[in-house]
């Protein structure tokens, strides 16, 4: 069984996220999503989520491509996650290109093209006016 892992906030879930999850799952047989906690988002990514961790987790767990959701609480957990879950490949959008090449020592690293023109930030901006 080929195991894939990806990381993200996935707030205001949209089709860009779904495209990413669909392609990440297609790389293997089992997809783990490490979902950023509210604290990690606020302290490390300076993102205030509209939906709480539990609400975002519930949404992700309802997606057919997602097999397991675990918390992402810090930047350093990726290596242990890959080892603990015996992950074969790490996949993430190419806005992160190069940032996680250090994981190549432990698993395949794949950067997937982002879906253009949609983002949580864009949705929030559009809804303001
Ligand atoms: N994404 C995408 N296309 C978009 C928007 C997002 O492919 N239009 C992808 C991102 O590249 C990422 C995933 O969807 O792979 C989740 O996006 P975010 O929730 O914005 O995640 P991010 O804040 O980039 O968190 O440790 C890594 C971080 O937790 C990644």
Your description of this structure?
By secondary structure, this protein is α/β, with parallel strands linked by helices. 26% of the residues are buried. Helix content is 34%, strand content 22%. The longest helix has 12 residues, at 15-26. It has a five-stranded parallel sheet. Strand 1 (3-8), helix 1 (15-26) and strand 2 form a beta-alpha-beta unit. Residues 7-10, 16-17, 20, 36, 45, 72, 92-93, 95, 114-115, 118-119 line the site of [cytidine-5'-phosphate] glycerylphosphoric acid ester (C2G).
Strand order of the largest sheet: 3-2-1-4-5
Biggest sheet character: 5 strands, parallel
How would you spell out the order of helices and strands? EHEHHEHEEH
The geometry reads as globular
Query: Rg, please?
Result: 14 Å
Keywords:
129 residues; 5-stranded parallel β-sheet; 34% helix; 22% strand; binds [cytidine-5'-phosphate] glycerylphosphoric acid ester
Compact summary:
The protein is an alpha/beta fold and 129 residues long. The chain is 34% helix and 22% strand. The chain has five helices and five strands, in the order E-H-E-H-H-E-H-E-E-H.
Set out the fold topology.
Elements: E1 3-8, H1 15-26, E2 30-36, H2 38-44, H3 53-61, E3 68-72, H4 78-84, E4 89-93, E5 108-112, H5 120-128
Parallel strand pairs: 1-2, 1-4, 2-3, 4-5
Bound molecules: [cytidine-5'-phosphate] glycerylphosphoric acid ester.
């Amino acid at each position: 069984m080929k195991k894939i892992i990806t990381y993200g906030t996935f707030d205001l879930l949209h089709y860009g996220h779904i495209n990413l999850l669909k392609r990440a799952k297609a790389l293997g047989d089992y997809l783990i999503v490490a979902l950023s906690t509210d604290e990690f988002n606020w302290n490390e990514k300076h993102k205030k989520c509209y939906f709480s961790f539990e609400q975002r987790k519930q949404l992700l767990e309802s997606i057919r491509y997602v097999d397991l959701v675990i918390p992402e609480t810090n930047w350093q957990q990726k290596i242990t996650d890959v080892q603990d879950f015996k992950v074969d490949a790490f996949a993430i959008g190419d806005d992160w290109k190069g940032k996680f090449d250090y994981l190549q020592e432990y698993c395949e690293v794949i950067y997937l093209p982002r879906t253009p023109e949609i983002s949580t930030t864009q949705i929030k901006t559009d809804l303001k006016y």
